[in-house]
């Protein structure tokens, strides 16, 4: 019979062996397990809302926090601190203005065209308190696209920032003809028919409006409309439900954020990263947000030191700009311990750590309208997310083979898609189900249907098409490879090639245009390039092309390069062929056709010569 000492020794040896085996075979098991526990804990709270009908939204959470921590700084903007109570009262004033005049009612959609600032948040929250859905308009979009946005979401009221009113001068008559009520964040205006809002806010009561106005019975009710450039051309209004808003608000908390954190948000609030993750996440934790009107690489670290920032939001391009700043002796003198964002290149990631310290970079992956999210909670460089056994039980996604030349998923003899092998690139699809719904786009079932792939692996199934090529390695780390179809990303924005193509088609000397993205060394994403065919008896006019692009396209969507062609290559299904054009890039030494470059200094598209090309690829020419 074995002695107790022998039993204990054997037991300890067994535990040690299991531990070693686990560390070797499943090195991330416990990190995955405890991270998923946090996600499940947050999800259970949302499920309780559904079961008890006690629906608590992001605006409800803000009102709770304003009651519990009224004097805590909520927003810091341009050196001024605004407490939870300050924004609570300011948003009440906004609600009172519109409630008193009967301008909007519960269930209406109101559009906002505003730059970052405390009043963006106050107006957003004030409208939410009235039970309105709010449409965030991208401040860079031009007249034609802006008019389209109203048709998408059905908004009949527009609130425009004081600094943006003049940009609407050309289309104000069109908006008013469509019976859209326009309110400017000003005390006076010379534009006829435009209402002023600032004076009325100052005179309004700061008492809360009735709580039943904001009450909802389902988390799947629309909360926001956030516009995203997709494959159809003009901006699409992604429907953001209260459920999606609450999920996004848990991002910082899931990564370990607390009420003691100070979050730095230099991204535009009209995008989901800053509004849903940034502002929503600040509210969820009861933390403080340092809000910037616009990102400044030269001010970034000084701001972080001045306001004791601990977490910052980023896109990959932002981190690259920071790395390109002149080195300083105090680069590592700050309290920042975490960055949350997406699109961080491996080389920039490593350089960022080397320059500014071992800040934990937490990559997120997920589109505004998508039904899937990946989170790189391990922090592995180059990974946009992490999957594992537990994750795959809850979320059903798959990477399928994709034909880049034909621009479509590969189908087998039975007509179904085929999954890729571990480590191979494939199109990311996410199964649409009750647990992972896809709410689509406002105003068009056709646009929503275009993002759905049906009969993928079996008759009747449905998957959300992310449009992204990804690869998953044997350890479950997921890496972004490329975008497919008619969208690419530049300067942190999605560029819809068909929208740019349509606008270029309005130039008198262009017969046909094919827009795509090309890689530029040292830059995130892809820069816009257009292959064009000239109309007979017309020649290329670089000045006219420049004026048209600047007038009708936002900065990030303007083609940086033009390629003149005699004929346009087509696919077997009569789609414009982009694959070879993308692969050939913009090098004048390998492309015999005429090339032009968007030169802001000369206000013209100029010939892309070899010296100009070298200046671009060496990073000497600012893009």
TrEMBL record:
Primary localization: membrane
Keyword check for Oxidoreductase: no
Keywords: Cell membrane, Fatty acid metabolism, Ligase, Lipid metabolism, Lipid transport, Membrane, Nucleotide-binding, Transmembrane, Transmembrane helix, Transport
Transmembrane segments: none
GO MF term list: long-chain fatty acid-CoA ligase activity; nucleotide binding
UniProt GO BP: lipid transport
NCBIfam families hit by this protein: PRK08279.1 (NF006134)
AMP-dependent synthetase/ligase domain residues: 64-387
Broad class of enzyme this protein falls into: ligase
Residues of the signal peptide: none
EC code: 6.2.1.3
Gene Ontology terms: cellular component: plasma membrane
Name this protein carries in UniProt: long-chain-fatty-acid--CoA ligase
Localisation: Cell membrane
Domain named AMP-binding enzyme C-terminal: residues: 499-575
Reactions catalysed, as given in the entry: a very long-chain fatty acid + ATP + CoA = a very long-chain fatty acyl-CoA + AMP + diphosphate; tetracosanoate + ATP + CoA = tetracosanoyl-CoA + AMP + diphosphate; a long-chain fatty acid + ATP + CoA = a long-chain fatty acyl-CoA + AMP + diphosphate
Family: Belongs to the ATP-dependent AMP-binding enzyme family.
Membrane topology of this protein: Multi-pass membrane protein
InterPro entries reported for this sequence: AMP-bd_C, AMP-bd_C_sf, AMP-binding_CS, AMP-dep_synth/lig_dom, ANL_N_sf
Pfam families: AMP-binding, AMP-binding_C
């Amino acid at each position: 019979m074995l002695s107790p000492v022998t039993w204990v020794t054997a037991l300890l040896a067994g535990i040690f062996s299991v531990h070693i085996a686990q560390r070797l075979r499943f090195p991330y098991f416990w990190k995955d397990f405890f991270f998923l526990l946090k996600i499940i804990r947050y999800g259970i709270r949302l499920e309780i809302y559904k079961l008890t009908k006690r629906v608590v939204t992001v605006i409800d959470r803000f009102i709770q926090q304003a009651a519990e921590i009224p004097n805590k700084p909520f927003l810091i903007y341009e050196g001024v601190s605004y407490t939870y109570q300050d924004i609570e009262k300011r948003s009440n004033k906004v609600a009172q203005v519109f409630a008193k005049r009967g301008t909007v009612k519960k269930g209406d959609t109101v559009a906002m065209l505003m730059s970052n600032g405390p009043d963006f948040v106050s107006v957003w929250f004030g409208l939410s308190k009235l039970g309105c859905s709010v449409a965030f308009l991208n401040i860079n979009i031009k007249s034609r696209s802006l008019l389209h946005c109203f048709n998408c979401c059905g908004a009949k009221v527009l609130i425009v920032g004081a600094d943006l009113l003049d940009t609407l001068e050309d289309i104000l008559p069109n908006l008013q003809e469509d019976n859209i009520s326009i309110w400017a964040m000003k005390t006076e205006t010379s534009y006829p028919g435009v209402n002023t809002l600032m004076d009325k806010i100052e005179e309004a009561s700061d008492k809360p409006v009735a709580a039943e106005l904001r009450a909802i019975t389902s988390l799947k009710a629309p909360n926001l409309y956030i516009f995203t450039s997709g494959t159809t051309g003009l901006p699409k209004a992604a429907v953001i439900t209260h459920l999606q808003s609450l999920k996004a608000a848990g991002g910082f908390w899931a990564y370990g954020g607390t009420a003691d954190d100070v979050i730095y948000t230099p991204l535009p609030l009209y995008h989901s990263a800053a509004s849903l993750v940034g502002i929503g996440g600040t509210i969820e934790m009861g933390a403080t947000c340092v809000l910037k009107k616009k990102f400044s690489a030269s001010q970034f670290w000084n701001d972080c030191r001045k306001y004791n920032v601990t977490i910052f939001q980023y896109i990959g391009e932002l981190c690259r700009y920071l790395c390109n700043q002149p080195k300083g002796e105090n680069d590592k003198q700050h309290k920042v311990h975490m960055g949350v964002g997406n699109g961080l290149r491996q080389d920039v990631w490593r350089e960022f750590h080397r320059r500014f310290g071992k800040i934990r970079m937490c990559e997120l992956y997920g589109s505004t309208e998508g039904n899937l999210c990946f989170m790189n909670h391990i922090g592995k460089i180059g990974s946009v997310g992490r999957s594992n056994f537990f994750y795959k039980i809850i979320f059903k996604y798959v990477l399928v083979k994709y034909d880049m030349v034909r621009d479509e998923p590969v189908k087998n003899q039975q007509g179904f898609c085929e999954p890729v092998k571990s480590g191979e690139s494939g199109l990311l699809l996410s199964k649409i189900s009750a647990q992972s719904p896809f709410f689509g786009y406002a105003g068009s079932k056709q646009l929503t249907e275009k993002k759905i792939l049906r009969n993928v692996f079996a008759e009747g199934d449905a998957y959300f098409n992310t449009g992204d090529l990804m690869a998953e390695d044997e350890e479950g780390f997921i890496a972004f490879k490329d975008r497919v179809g008619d969208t690419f990303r530049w300067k942190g924005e999605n560029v819809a090639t068909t929208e740019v193509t349509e606008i270029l088609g309005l130039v008198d000397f262009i017969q046909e245009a094919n827009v795509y993205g090309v890689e530029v060394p040292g830059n995130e994403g892809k820069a816009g390039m257009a292959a064009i065919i000239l109309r007979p008896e017309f020649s290329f006019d670089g000045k006219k092309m420049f004026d048209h692009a600047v007038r009708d396209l936002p900065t990030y969507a303007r083609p940086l390069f033009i390629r003149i062609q005699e004929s346009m290559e087509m696919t077997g299904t009569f789609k414009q062929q982009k694959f070879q054009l993308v692969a050939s890039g913009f090098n004048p030494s390998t492309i015999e056709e005429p090339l032009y470059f968007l030169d802001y200094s000369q206000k013209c598209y100029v010939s892309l010569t070899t010296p100009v090309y070298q200046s671009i690829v060496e990073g000497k020419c600012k893009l």
